[in-house]
Amino acid sequence: MNKSVLFRQIKQKRSFLCIGLDTEMEKLPKHLLSEGDPVFSFNKAIIDATAQYAVAYKPNTAFYEVQGSKGWESLEKTIKYLKINYPQIFIIADAKRGDIGNTSVNYARAFFDHLDADALTVAPYMGFDSVSPFLDFDEKWVILLALTSNAGSQDFQYNCQTSGKRLFEEVLSKAKDWATSEQLMFVVGATHPEEIAAIRQLVPDYFLLVPGVGAQGGSLEAVAENGLNDECGLLVNSSRGILYASSQIDFAERAAEEARKLQAQMEKVLLQKALL
Amino acid sequence: MNKSVLFRQIKQKRSFLCIGLDTEMEKLPKHLLSEGDPVFSFNKAIIDATAQYAVAYKPNTAFYEVQGSKGWESLEKTIKYLKINYPQIFIIADAKRGDIGNTSVNYARAFFDHLDADALTVAPYMGFDSVSPFLDFDEKWVILLALTSNAGSQDFQYNCQTSGKRLFEEVLSKAKDWATSEQLMFVVGATHPEEIAAIRQLVPDYFLLVPGVGAQGGSLEAVAENGLNDECGLLVNSSRGILYASSQIDFAERAAEEARKLQAQMEKVLLQKALL
Lengths: 276, 276
Prior knowledge:
2 copies of one chain form a homodimer. The first copy, chain A, is of the alpha/beta class and 276 residues long. The first copy, chain A, has one domain: Aldolase class I (TIM Barrel). Chain A has helices at residues 3-13, 38-50, 62-65, 68-85, 101-114, 128-131, 167-176, 193-202, 220-227, 240-243, 251-272, and strands at 17-21, 56-59, 90-97, 119-122, 141-147, 161-162, 165-166, 184-188, 208-210, 234-238. In chain A, α8 links the parallel β8 (184-188) and β9. In chain A, α2 (38-50) runs parallel beside α4, α2 (38-50) packs across α11 and α9 runs parallel beside α11. The longest helix of chain A has 22 residues, at 251-272. At the A-B interface, α3, α4, α5, α6 and β6 of A face α3, α4, α5, α6 and β6 of B.
């Protein structure tokens, strides 16, 4: 998927919501546990209930790998289900991979060829040659960690500097030379609203994937105020607040309600910025 | 496995060799391709041929994930085979994971509970709370990326500084406060021999996992000269040089020959340092 198609989806759905499929066996409604693949059954129900409010889904591989090869099967089935039933949805594999070049080639094939995700989150620590193999795929995206939403983002991302730039700013600056905004996005946590405006200056055209709204305490309004650009430029993620709105038989309807609330807030800020 | 058991294995085998199971379908001997699980068949043959020369095996997840859930099955079978047949071998899942805390908990369960690896490589970019969940497991190890063997290690690991310390030095300094040398090791590429002596000063008691010998051009002698401590303190990895020594029917014997050559070199430097 290219950037203009993504922006068209955002305008059609009046939403820049990404739903994080962080599906944990322990949190599933009890009545699903007797199914052959409870994780996939849950994802399917969540997707069907919320797809009208979301432009993207983001399964995080940790929640699948915890079940080993069986979990990877659930992941494969989930992405296939999305591809077949919702071909306009943008699929992000949140895997935070990154390794030396010939190894990253294999990660790229795993996520872009085998799984057929549209985008992969990638960790920048190992530098250019660990990222570049992911950029060799047409209409596939790298979403590079810049400033993450957790407390540990202080440890290195904030505190290390080069020529007065903090590490996450240096990652943004360097990575701009690696790929255009047609292939590269950045992860910026909603828990740093004060930084999002500055980051928007540094990378005006690039989409930002923003986790941390909801359970982690970030504010959607503050993110939108500081982060929207003239092609939206934001994908705001919510996971637990939607997935686990109810642990009862009504889990999918309650998830849809939460997704609809976020969509309504997003529509409001998109209208305010005259993007609709 | 604890550190003293690891050192005992090193002394018994007169080797600190780690064999990287970077098993690529395209590089397998043709006669294995008709097997039900050629990757596992290859790994089993390599392990049986080389286990007398190696103290550790290190499957890199990229080479398994490229086959999706089927690849994860090969990985599960490989680790199970090692655990059952070679219980004294140290198993490193080279996965370079790292995510926010509640997500890293799931990666820790995936690799330490489900797969039952002894150690996991972890990327430090997201800071303390992304690493700490991996430290909550008894006799399981975090191997934190410090200075990697690839050219891209220059981009951030070298060039970003805080109070005069380069990023990889800051990672070493901070991480020393997170865990002792009984739970934590560091990845330091053999392609930086000039740095290994300085790193040994910074973290005198910690094991270093050293990739980059062989195909990537690092020298075992230089690594040993600068990196050995009084409990050895080194695991030196070789992957392609051993795995693909031959692509014919004799691949396992040729792999054993290459492993034995490295073991002999290691025995020599261990004797020189009076560690045997």
